Amino acid sequence: MSASDRISRPTNPDGLVLEAWGQGLMLGCLLVMASVTFVNMKKHILLHKLILIELILAMPNGTFIFPKDPVYGWYQSVTAVGLNVSWSLHNVIAWMKNRPFMSRKVSLFYIGTVILAQPYWVLEIYANFAYFNNYNKIFLTTRPLEPIFRDPWWIFTTCSLFYTIKREYNFGIFELVSVSPRFGIMLASMCLSIAFMIVDTCSVLNVFSHSSLPTGIEPFWKLSFIFKCLCDTVILDDFKTALDRMRAYWFRKRNMGGEILLHTGEHHHQHHRMEGSDRRPTDEDVEALTGNGGDRRKSESLPKERLINFISNEFEHSKQMPSTSAAVRRQKSRPDETLVSIFDSSTTAGICLRVRFIKTLATPLANLPPQDPSTGCSGDHDSVQVADLIQLILLSVVEMPGRGLLRVLSGCTLLSLGAVTVVAQDRWPYMTLQTAPYEPPQIQITKSGTTDPGYLFVGPRGNRPAGTAALIYDEDGNLVYQGPEQVTANFRVQRLFNQDVVTFWAGNMTDLGFGYGSVHILDNTYREIYTVTLQGDFETPDDSVPDSYIDLHESHISARNTLLVTAYNVTQQSLTSIGGTPEDYMLDSLFYEIDIATNEVVHSWSALEHADQIALTDSKQGIDDDHGTHEQPWDAYHINSVELFDQGYLISMRHYWSGYYGEPGKGDFQLDQAGAFSWQHDMRIYNETETSMILSLFNNANTPSETVAPSTGLSYAVDLVNRTAKTLRTLSDSKDVIYSVSQGNYQQLSPSGHVVLGYGSIAKIKEFDANNKEVLTAQFGTDNEVASYRGYKCAWKATPFWAPSIVVRRVSRNSAQVFMSWNGATEYDNWAVMAADSLDSVSTTIVTTFKRTGFETSGTVRGLKTKYLQVVARQGDIPLGTSPIVSF
């Protein structure tokens, strides 16, 4: 290459100023957008992380104007690698945001072509390096092709979004912008990015006069890229999530006339019943009360307690490793309690079985009636797949043949493809509705026998906010109810004051496997009649102060109308016995019994207060160098279920492979070898008598870091006289072996003898008949990507307090398509479509009827002589709920 043809840092003042201005503008904008993204992103959402990575990768290319030759060419080429990866990542992000609106074939074609374009970018990275370091001028040939391999996907995304807004959502662009100026900014940025994209292409193809710009200098691709990134940053979530939220507002504004149409979760809360009254709260009562929560009170002093290990299986291989530490207050428990550990029994095959029980005598509650048999649940949450994939990619780059630039180029391409692979993992189908801004996961149901009647209750959570809610499905796979989008657990039907209610925990989960939240109790109209909270002198890992400290693991209503809940407290504790230091931190695992009517704590219990009976050295949860600090305290106990038993409590401790119950002066229970379990959840008691009972549990047998054996449901016949536990049932599906690493539950369906197992970290529910045969499998997410802490099957009847929803789209002059739904309603079987003369008509005329078909029913109405319609949900000819009148 001749000296006159050499490429160097711009020396022309106009070119230098223009390039410096373009780079400074790009870098400044990216820094601001990255900061905004960082403070608004949700750590558990992959899309938000990818947007931040996209911005960070492009930043260094906004500084290559500073180095001088010969560093200039190398610096520009290296920073261009991150920029090129960022461009490909932008197309992946656009795919993620637009994917809910694309068919499966279009989605696969979109992401497939993005992947197929990657070899060009490898070539372009090389061409850029060779050009700016004066090896050859291939770049002059490849650079004009950049728009073809960079921009078609973004143009498609923009056109697709505008088309979707026009076709799928019942409002215009200007109305949408008035509802959400932020969305308007995004749409304007899309248009501007395409405009500058066109100008950039024209500039590269020398459409403009050579005298209009310095040779080789043009800022248009930077401006296009800035507006592209602004589109990603101004709305972090996918397009459908954002549009559905705005549509919900539009529904209320246009269809409701101020009345409630959609269930938004903004319940009125009630903490107290009226004194001296057993009546159910009226509408006025509920609306007059707010959710302040009662103060946590110290329980009355209790007599001494004795701990007896009830059921425990111990595989002799847990490791204990040293940790680091720091300091905090301990949640105080009563000093007058003593606990006694009693019994060990060993078996062959390297498995040591120990059966343990703890009983806590509670004098203030001694005169209350015993607990009815019931069902329950429990779990943790971990996801290591993305980290594992990234680690694999990095190891591949390290071991890659070649060196220098070749390894860098290959590594960047592999990382880009790896990001695409991670993003493409969740292929599970989600529902799209016209009458509600919901996107719940579709549930796939397979029946192989006779099942018990009832609805399926789950609280899934995964990589996307849509569908993360309390959900009810019928056995045909139809959605029945979706609650507000929030992390929930223990969603099910329970009995309170002799009436059926639905209960669930909602709050924030931590990365340590527990959470902070409140328990919500709704009647059969979905009005929130009680909100149970817990305050107190707690320490949290991040020093935050939540509104309530109730943990997600338990929210069990007892027969005495109290609520059993769990909680965690960061506590400074000497861990020298397991190789730690005197100033380490651990989690004290606690449970509370709370009077639902008053929100007062009537009993509390701390595992750490009984460390002399439950030795820390017996914990199966190893401690490593990353745990033992205030931010990462060691979780030795992990209580995940609590149940009343006689006059005490049955406590499941996952990290001890044990259930504890207290009874003075008695020994442990001997368990047969067939009943071995580990890392269990959800211990429950059934058919309790003075001499015997049935005990059940969900046997995970695995952890997120160790897979040992298939997960099973186990039940035992417990002889309270001879203190033995004999295995009754071992439930598993040989055709579908599941390894659940966390969470899960065992639900006894009386009186049929059927059992429902929720598999926690695996998004499945299975029902087994009395002969232990699997008769139903329901799956609502991809394995190990979507979880539901517990899954239940419950009988339920509900008539919501909100009105049905209606959306009407005109098909022709005298016909229209009507969409109708009633979120949560179980009792109606058909719809009547009514014609009205105006929006405020008091009289309507029936036009036609439609049989109920799933959550949302649709049908075409012909021969219309009005533009005002209304729908009525009916059971036979009996009206149960009436929608607002809408115009179309």
Q: What is the structural class?
A: alpha+beta
Provide the gyration radius in Å: 31 Å
Strand percentage lies at 25-35%
Based on DSSP secondary structure assignment, what is the total number of beta strands?
38
Describe the protein.
With 888 residues, the protein is of the alpha+beta class. The strands form 9 sheets. Strands 1, 2, 3, 16, 17 and 18 form a 6-stranded antiparallel sheet that branches. The protein has a 5-stranded antiparallel sheet with strand order 4-29-28-27-26, with no helix packed on it. Helix 2 (46-58) runs antiparallel to helix 3, helix 3 (71-98) packs antiparallel against helix 4 (104-116) and helix 3 (71-98) packs antiparallel against helix 5 (118-132). The longest helix has 28 residues, at 13-40. The model is unreliable at 254-306, 314-410 and 412-425 (pLDDT under 50).
Defining key terms:
15 helices; ASST-domain-containing protein; six-stranded antiparallel sheet; about 900 residues; five-stranded antiparallel sheet; alpha+beta; about 25% helix; about 25% strand; membrane; transmembrane; 38 strands
